[in-house]
From TrEMBL:
Gene3D superfamilies cross-referenced by the UniProt entry: PgpA-like
InterPro entries documented for this protein: PgpA, PgpA-like_sf, YutG/PgpA
Keywords (A to Z) from UniProt: Membrane, Transmembrane, Transmembrane helix
Signal sequence range: none
Phylogenetic placement of the source organism: Bacteria, Pseudomonadati, Bdellovibrionota, Bdellovibrionia, Bdellovibrionales
Protein name per the record: Phosphatidylglycerophosphatase A
Record-annotated YutG/PgpA domain positions: 8-145
Amino acid sequence: MRNFLKQLATLFGVGRFPKGPGTVGTLVTIPLVILLAQAGPLVYMAAIVLLLPVGIAACEFYEQDKGGHDHKEIVIDEVLGFLITMVWLPMTWQAILIGFCVFRLLDITKPFFIGYLDKKIQGGLGVMADDVAAGIIASLIMQVLYTQTNWLGSQILVP
């Protein structure tokens, strides 16, 4: 189980991509977002709730074996953060593109308290916390865009 969780931390090797592994990890999450959206909101939310403790354990084991904190190879945190970003949104190319950009911007720049979480919380929880926070803030931004503008386009998939 420990080896499986360590593989999950890197999303089965995606995190070893030489350039921008966090961005690549977020990019390969797009099909999962679409699949979960088609499964319905309860399944989507259940996946997020399940992935949080599993992701924390995966990151914890990875850090224990590698030493140090928040290795660039760990991308399960980006997976969860992007899933949170896209919750309860239409599955349009515009929503996916804008959500991707907003989440990556917040994850990379770490504004507000996101940077504090990144620096102050250690272990697997610390690895996941900043991306969860970035995902929540990105989701709030996306919900405002969804309800107040037409920037997210027309629904292309019917869940």
